[in-house]
Design goal:
It is built from 9 helices and 8 strands. The protein is an alpha+beta fold. It folds into 2 domains: about 200 residues; about 60 residues, no CATH class. The strands form 3 sheets. Strands 1-5-4-2 form a 4-stranded mixed β-sheet.
């Protein structure tokens, strides 16, 4: 199946041409080296108005997760892929009208290749494992070093969003594409079953038991608690307000927020 580059742009933040409005580009090979990654992260921190470079590093993960979406879209759904290695990607920083930084990726070479057998679960698993080891892992470890933040705190930004993207890609499939639904599900489960060695951690960060919270507005649709804080409350736009699903929020804070949410609904 051919790749839809509109999907890569929308969900992966991946573009094939650099923006003329970028204020600071950096290759992923440079990003993972502290002598280059740290100064870039400090620039991002200033534009983001984040409390620390550690907060900025966590925020970069909001963009890095796009690579995760792209990898699963290409391998599981399409059976066709482009090179997502560190040598083939740069990250660019643009400022919106209010001066807030927006990050995205630039793909340098767009040569497409097909899996030998899209239906072979072992081949798909191998492709995804290579992506996690050779691309995602080095990015996360580089950001952690530059921002002086625990590696695990960055990995934990991804489990919930991976489930979200997999479900999203499933919804776009027709009844005649049930095999692709099965591939997406099987490959998600494969990642959740990866050895901890893939992540250089003691435990696979995707092997987690989700915690659900009561939805103050609809009890039949509970919210999933985030696996780690996204640090939104520690940037200027966050206004020192934690997300309702933040694991750092106390029960007292969550109850107060629930009442606040109920009070905003007009019946």
């Amino acid at each position: 199946m051919a790749l839809d580059y509109a999907v890569l742009a929308q969900y992966g933040g991946i573009h094939t041409k650099p923006s003329s409005e970028s204020v600071r580009d950096i290759s992923l090979l440079e990003l993972i080296r502290p002598e280059y990654g740290k100064p870039w992260l400090e620039i991002y921190q200033r534009h983001l108005q984040a409390e620390t470079t550690g907060v900025a590093a966590v925020y970069v993960m909001h963009t890095v997760r796009g690579l995760l979406a792209a990898a699963h879209y290409m391998v599981s759904r399409c059976g066709t892929y482009v090179d997502l290695s560190l040598t083939n990607l740069s990250i660019q920083m643009q400022l919106n009208d209010s001066g807030a930084p927006q990050l995205s990726f630039v793909l340098h070479k767009t040569e497409e290749r097909e899996l030998v057998n899209h239906g072979d679960a072992a081949e798909r698993r191998q492709m995804l494992e290579q992506f996690y080891v050779r691309t995602l892992g080095p990015i996360i470890e580089g950001l952690a070093a530059a921002g002086r933040v625990p590696v695990l705190a960055l990995w934990k930004q991804l489990p919930g969003i991976l489930i979200y993207y997999v479900n999203l890609f499933k919804e776009g499939l027709s009844c005649g594409e049930q095999d692709l639904v099965e591939y997406l599900t099987a490959d998600l489960e494969a990642v959740q079953g990866f050895s901890s060695d893939v992540f250089n951690l003691r435990k696979n960060p995707f092997d987690v038991e989700p915690v659900y919270l009561e939805n103050p507005l609809n009890a039949e649709e509970p919210f999933r608690m985030k696996d780690a804080c996204c640090e939104f409350y520690r940037v200027s736009d966050g206004k020192n307000r934690k997300c309702f699903t933040c694991p750092r929020m106390t029960a007292e804070e969550r109850n107060a927020r629930a009442e606040e949410m109920r009070g905003t609904v007009t019946i």
